[in-house]
Amino acid sequence: MSDKIEDNSSFEEFRNNIKGGKAIKQIASLLAPFSKTAKNVLGALENFEDLEKQFKEISKSPDSFNKYFSELGWIAHESINHNLMLECIQLAESGSLNTAEEKLADYYTSEEMSWLVSSVYGVPEFRKRNELINAAYEDTKAKKFYSAIPLLLMIIDGTVNDISKSKGFFAENTDLTAWDSIAAHSTGLSKLRDILNVTRKGTTTDEIFFPYRNGILHGRDISYGNKYVAAKSWLTLFAINDWAKALKRNKENPPKENKKQNLKESLIELKNSTIKYQERQLKFKEMDNYMNCWKERKPIIGEDFPSKGALGDYKDFTPEKDAINFLINWQNNNYGAIAKQISFFTKEVNFGKEAGRVRKIFENKKLKDFEIVSIDHKAPAITEIVVIITILFNEKEYVEEILLRMIYENEQNENLVFGQSGGIWKIIDSFFFAKIEYLGY
Q1: pLDDT per residue over 244-299, tens digit each?
Q2: 317 — alpha (psi -120 to 50), left (phi > 0) or beta?
Q3: Is the whole-model pTM more than 0.90?
Q4: 375-424: pLDDT as tens digits
Q5: Please, which residues have CB within 8 angstroms of residue 233's CB and are 6 or more apart in sequence?
Q6: Domain 311-437 listed as CATH 3.10.450.100
Q7: Parallel, antiparallel, or unpaired for β 342-343 and 424-428?
C-alpha cells in the first residue's frame, strides 16, 4: 500500500485519464481549424482545467489533513465533510490549529453529523447495535459526554470484532487496511488505533482529549467527558463504517490490473469519469442543501394526514405513504411487494427467495385493521412509525403495537434526505418481523 492516499488506485486512474486528456486536447487544438470532430472534442474538454484543479485539491486533501491532524486523533475518511476538511487544512497552514480542532469537535458532536449517524445502518455489524448508537447520539446532542463515550468505545470495538471475525479495533494485530480506501489507508485507522490504544498507567484526574480506550473503560482516566473525546470517538466510528464499506466493495469488485490505453480509450474513460464526478458533485450539493434545510419533522396525525386511508391521501416520498403501502400490501397478501420494501443494504438480493421468507412470516396472519399513532423523525433519512394493528391468527384476534423503523433510499440503495424525490422509505428488517413470526406462541 502506498505511503500516500493520493496514490490510491482510484486517484491514480483518474490522474492517468487527465494525462491522456491533456494529450488529446493538445492534438484537438491543432486539428480544430480543419476538423469538426476535433472541434467537438475541444468543446467537450472546455472546462478541463477546472476539473484538473478540483481533482488535485480532492486527491491531495486527505494526505494534508492527516499530516496536520492524525497525531491529534483526527483522520480523513471517505464520508468526511469535504468543505470542513479543506477549511481545517487552511486553518492549520495559517497556524490556527486550535481553531481547526474546535471546528472538528463542534461538528462531530452536533446534529450536523446526523447524516453520518444514519449512514452506519448500511453496515450489518453496526445495524445490530443501532439502539446503542442512537443512545450515544442522543447523549452526545444533550452534551452527556460521560455516558456517550464509553458506549461509542464499546460499539467500535465490538463492531470491528464482528467485521474482522478475529479481534476488536484496539487489538494490535487487527488489520484495519483496505485497498483503495482513504479511512483504511495505512496512515488512517491503523495509526489512529495505535494512538488510542496506548497503555494508561495509574488513575488520573487530569483532563484528557483523546478517547483512550484502556484509560476510560478501565476507570483510570476519570476526566474524559468533553466534546473533543466524544468527537474523536464519533469520527473513529464513521471511519470504521467507511472501512467496512471498502472491504465489501473490494469483495464484490476485486482490484483490476491497470492496462495501458490508447488515446481513444483514454478520452472515453475521461469522459465517463468526468460525468460520474459531476453527477456525484451535484448529488452532494443537492444533499447538502436538503441537509441544511432539514428540521425535525413533527406531523400531526389527523390534521396533516389520516391515521389510516388510501394511498392517495398521503404525499409522495414520505415515510407515512410507504408505511401505508406496506400495510395495504400485507392486507392483500402481496409478499413480493413487501420484500421490495425491505432495506437489505446490499445490491444483490434474490427477491423470489425473500418473498418466500416474507410469506412464511405473514401467511395465516390476516391484517384486519391498522392505525398510525405516531411518527418520529430520528434523522434526515431515518423515521420511526408506531402502528396499532389488528390481526386474525388461528381464529383469534390480536391487537399489537408495532414499530416500523424506516430508512430513505434510492434504487441503488444509497441514502437520501427527506425532501428529495425519487426514493422509497424502506423497512429496516428487525424485531418487528420476529414479533409477527412468533405471534401466538
Answers
A1: 999 988 776 666 655 555 555 655 666 666 666 566 666 666 666 666 666 667 78
A2: left
A3: no
A4: 988 777 788 899 999 999 888 999 988 889 888 888 777 777 788 888 89
A5: 148, 149, 152, 153, 156, 211
A6: yes
A7: parallel
Matching residue, cell 479511512: 183
**CA–CA–CA angle 170, 176, 177 (5° rounding):** 160
C-alpha cell at 264: 481513444
Question: Residue 368 — φ and ψ, nearest 5°?
Answer: -90, -35
Q: Which amino acid is at 199?
A: T
User: How far, in Å, CA of 423 to CA of 295, rounded?
Assistant: 19
Residue 221: exposed, middle, or buried by beta-carbon count in 10 A (0-12, 13-18, 19+)? buried
Query: What contacts 24+ positions apart, CB below 8 Å, involve 85-94?
Result: 85/61, 86/57, 86/61, 89/61, 89/64, 89/65, 92/68, 93/68
What is the reported pLDDT for 35? 47
The domain segmentation of the chain, as residue ranges, is: 47-258, 311-437
SS3 of residue 34 by DSSP: coil
Query: What's the burial of 296, exposed, middle or buried (CB within 10 Å: 0-12/13-18/19+)?
Result: exposed
In tens, the pLDDT along 353-363 reads: 888 988 988 88
Give the three cell numbers for residue 262: 490508447
d(CA 136, CA 130): 10
